[in-house]
From TrEMBL:
The keyword Hydrolase does not apply. One of its GO terms (molecular function) is transmembrane transporter activity. It is found in: Membrane. This is MFS general substrate transporter. It comes from Clathrus columnatus. Keywords: Membrane, Transmembrane, Transmembrane helix. The chain crosses the membrane at residues 84-108, 128-145, 208-230, 242-266, 287-308, 314-338, 350-370, 382-400. Its main location: membrane. It comes from the Eukaryota. The keyword Oxidoreductase does not apply. GO terms for cellular component: plasma membrane.
Length: 413
């Protein structure tokens, strides 16, 4: 039998299993992580069923998940309505992290008031707040599954306001599960760069890598105030609160840059590999963004370490911080998108677990980062952290790309 005949037989056996009464809205869940995006390839794989597939406005991509023929389906909402909902969710998602980080501004005043060190105050406030953010996300998903999304969103924000008024540094909910769960219901996979029965291999490796990479960046964010406020004799910059607050604009700008690169870069990379893969999307295509982010991450951490140890100008410190945070955001977008493509029915759970991984990886960093940098030098501290992330990348990301499809077929539901 010729190669053409073999391919025809394979395609014939593939689309013979799809019947006319197939629920197309659930088809992307049955083949999690592998989606036929090109309409021509869809006709080859799905046969006559492909005629029922809905395409984007240009008619050059198949929409996944497939929307229902009703205006009540969130995927059929207008762009304005989608963006309006996204704005509300974004504002709600800001609250927990804001509550968690707002106490950083007071660590020097509190250290003076209670006659202790800024590191001790940081350990008792910011670190534990970060730790609780991760566990709060798991409970948020459980409650949303039981009571719905809007009640949990409302009550979590209301309770959060109460705690903010009471203590100004306590967070009671997690932004990601409250945010990503509704977003996953209103958008299509081709336009978003955004629970398995067995949590092994595929998700565990992604969680480990993202948790360590993001965790070290959390450590930087909560300890920078300490580094910048230390006197010159102790290797710090002796900055006052106003100057420290100005420096914290750096990660905000870096996150916006990283989000933009991550979103459009992910889509561009995916489109490139979809064309090479005969119009078929594979979830592992998302991971190529990690290759672009890793050199930036290493560069940023090394520059931060050198800036602190050699006491370089504040410009060098800000550049290193910004580069590192941009790389973190690029990687985070890729990991989130990859995990959600692999487990399309469980975006809330995926978000909660990734958030738990990053908070568990980050809350403890502040305990050892400042003492380590003080005793051994900041260049060694941040250099070793970057080396750990690079080692995890080498061990995990290529393996996921090579074995990812086999893992998905075995473990995804």
């Amino acid at each position: 039998m010729s190669d053409t005949e073999k391919q025809g037989a394979e395609h014939g056996s593939q689309h013979s299993e799809y019947s006319e009464d197939l629920d197309l809205s659930l088809l992307h869940e049955a083949h999690a992580g592998r989606l036929v995006v090109d309409p021509e390839e869809a006709r080859v794989e799905f046969g006559t069923v492909a005629a029922r597939l809905k395409l984007n406005k240009r008619g050059n991509k198949v929409l996944w998940p497939q929307p229902y023929d009703t205006p009540e389906d969130p995927q059929n909402w207008s762009i304005f309505k989608k963006n309006y909902l996204l704005l509300i969710i974004t504002l709600a998602a800001i609250t927990p992290d804001f509550n968690s980080g707002v106490g950083i501004a007071a660590i020097f005043a509190l250290a003076t008031q209670f006659d202790t060190s800024t590191g001790e105050i940081n350990n008792l406030t910011s670190n534990w707040s970060i730790f609780l953010l991760g566990w709060g996300g798991l409970f948020a998903v459980m409650l949303m599954r039981r009571y719905g999304r809007l009640p949990i969103l409302f009550w979590s924000q209301l309770i959060s306001v109460g705690f903010l008024v009471g203590s100004s540094s306590t967070a009671v909910s997690n932004p990601s599960p409250n945010g990503l769960t509704p977003v996953s219901s209103i958008d299509f996979i081709p336009s978003s760069a955004l629970l398995a029965g067995k949590w092994r291999n595929i998700l565990l490796m992604a969680l480990i890598y993202e948790g360590v990479l993001f965790g070290f960046s959390i450590g930087i964010n909560v300890t920078f105030a300490v580094f910048l406020g230390l006197p010159l004799s102790m290797g710090g910059y002796n900055f006052k609160q106003f100057s420290i607050a100005g420096c914290y604009a750096t990660p905000i700008i870096a996150v916006l840059i990283g989000e933009t690169i991550g979103r459009y870069g992910n889509d561009s990379i995916a489109n490139f590999f979809i064309k090479r893969n005969h119009g078929v999307f594979e979830a592992e295509m998302r991971l190529w963004m990690c290759y672009l982010a890793l050199p930036l991450y290493i560069c940023g951490f090394v520059v931060i370490g050198a800036a602190f140890q050699k006491h370089l100008t504040i410009g060098a410190l800000i550049m290193g911080w910004g580069i590192a945070e941009t790389a973190v955001m690029m990687t985070t977008v890729a990991i989130y998108a990859y995990a959600n493509d692999c487990f399309p029915r469980h975006q809330g759970e995926i978000s909660a677990l990734i958030n738990l991984a990053r908070t568990l990886g980050g809350f403890a960093v502040a305990y050892f980062q400042v003492p380590w940098a003080t005793s051994r030098g900041a260049l060694q501290t941040f250099g070793v952290e970057a080396a750990i992330v690079a080692a995890l990348f080498i061990m995990l990301i290529p393996l996921l790309q090579i074995k990812g499809r086999a893992f998905r077929e075995k473990y995804s539901i």
